[in-house]
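Researcher: I'm preparing a figure for a lab meeting and need a structural model of a single chain. I don't have an experimental structure, so a prediction will have to do for now. The sequence is pasted below. Please return the structure as tokens so I can convert it later.
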Amino acid sequence: MLKMSHFIEKDDQERSIRVTQAPVLDVKQLRTSFFSSDGEVPAVDDISFSVHKGEVLGIVGESGCGKSVTSLSIMKLIPQPPGKIVGGEILLDGEDLVNASERRMREIRGNEVAMIFQEPMTSLNPLFTIGDQLVEGIKLHKKLKKKTASQQAVEMLKLVGLPRAEQIMKEYPHQLSGGMRQRVMIAMALSCHPRLLIADEPTTALDVTIQAQILSLMKDLNEKLDTAIIMITHDLGVVAEVCERVIVMYAGKIVEEATVEEIFKNPKHPYTQGLLQSVPDVREKKERLYSIPGNVPKPGSIKTGCRFAARCEFVHDRCMTESPPLYNVEKAEQHTVRCFLHESGGVINDRSAVGS
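Model: Understood. Here is the structure written out token by token.
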């Protein structure tokens, strides 16, 4: 298991001040579904969370848990058809993006909310230079002349630690390494100083050394620019390194939420505990790494009961027939869990409705 020394250190007083301020992003009971000839398939089902200025929030879970659908819903990039946001609110500084027009969303994307995708080569246009792509976004959103936008683009490349920024402006994506392309994507995402940055598995396609450099860069930029960040990942090492608070998702639901320190010291949901047991530890000699038995259920396949019941070692009859609400964890602040084992903490009613 990861050592506590790996956790990002944040001042408790600073964290408390942020909580009292209005969040940059406030997601309320969001539901996103996909439709086929077989009917509606819920991919994100009644989730609620918020992100404050300067905060780094991690969303963690296995593939198929709804993490990326959540991020695409925030950006309103769900392909329609077959997908659709069918309920809830996505409030960006109080403005509901669910009801925003496509014209308004084009103003918001890249300017007020930016996103970094997993594979930079699929996000960068191979036919245009790095400079052309950076400058275009700055000109579009900031209404600057080309010369001024070019100067700002060079400064952003320098900010993300790229040497010879002026030369890179003239190069094409295929001429750069994977790590350099991801730095370009970060520069592009931050070039208009967005209020919120969504990073969807930003280091997965990179080798371990480059991963560490990118995570260090993102921590540094978060401190310098005070931008709110949502870090989507399946890697708990990334969560420990960068995030302050973490949401654990399973089969479209939030099953646990707490500070990173609390999640690692005191995990409550059996799924969270299983994820932590799966983290390799170089101090332990094991012939075989632990893995949670079974697989994430297909969206919409579970109609009743707890969605983790089929994989849970603590399952009992109630889990098969009732869907647990979110409970407060006793003797812990800002720690909630969706599990009947912790119902003594009391149901929380202000963030999430009970649902299957």
